[in-house]
Amino acid sequence: MMRKWQGTKDVRYLSDYALLLALTKDYGKARDIYLQVESIAPGRYATAASLGTVYELLGDDRQALTWIRKAVRIDPASHMGSEWLHVKILEAKLQGSSAVNSKFLLNTSFGTQALPRTALSKQQLLKLRDALFYQLNERVSFIKPKDALVAQLLFDLGNVAFLTDIEYESEIIYGMAREYGYASPLRRARVAALAKQIKQRYHSKPAGKA
């Protein structure tokens, strides 16, 4: 890739080289190459998003937030329109444990009762589910248990799945939330309510039938 970059001066080859460095966990070198790409071809969405990710992997959440915000400004519809959540995740990491909650991260909540409650429409829930799934799918690939922020997001994704009638998926996600360290009694209450709903929906027989 470097030879192709040197021969053609096509910045895409340089960007591909940075991606390869990131995939092999040479994050510092990847950052330097992406910064070089930015200096040659400023304003590319892919560069800003990649720099945000690499800075986060290097533990520099403040710089990561700067670059992810820039990426969102360049292309707010990217990553299925879910990068707003990446911004909230980085803001929460900078603010600390007090920001690790549904209200801060998602600007909504699902109540404190056994059955989750929401003010969101079905369409809004589905859009939120897509954003959570997209961001978590990337995040769990490089963050291993336990992690309070991932645990909270998984619990919220479980709530959304519950509310959109994907019970079996919700059951699995609640289990992942526990694996990542979500220890609130509310999770157990939701799991019990979910099991009851699954039993009623799929295993009860209509009255009068054998």
From TrEMBL:
Q: TPR repeats: which residues?
A: 45-78
One matching Pfam family is TPR_8
Q: Which InterPro entries match?
A: TPR-like_helical_dom_sf, TPR_rpt
The UniProt entry, under PROSITE patterns, shows:
TPR
Q: Which UniProt keywords apply?
A: TPR repeat
Q: What is this protein called?
A: Tetratricopeptide repeat protein
Its source organism is Hymenobacter saemangeumensis
Give the lineage. Answer: Bacteria, Pseudomonadati, Bacteroidota, Cytophagia, Cytophagales
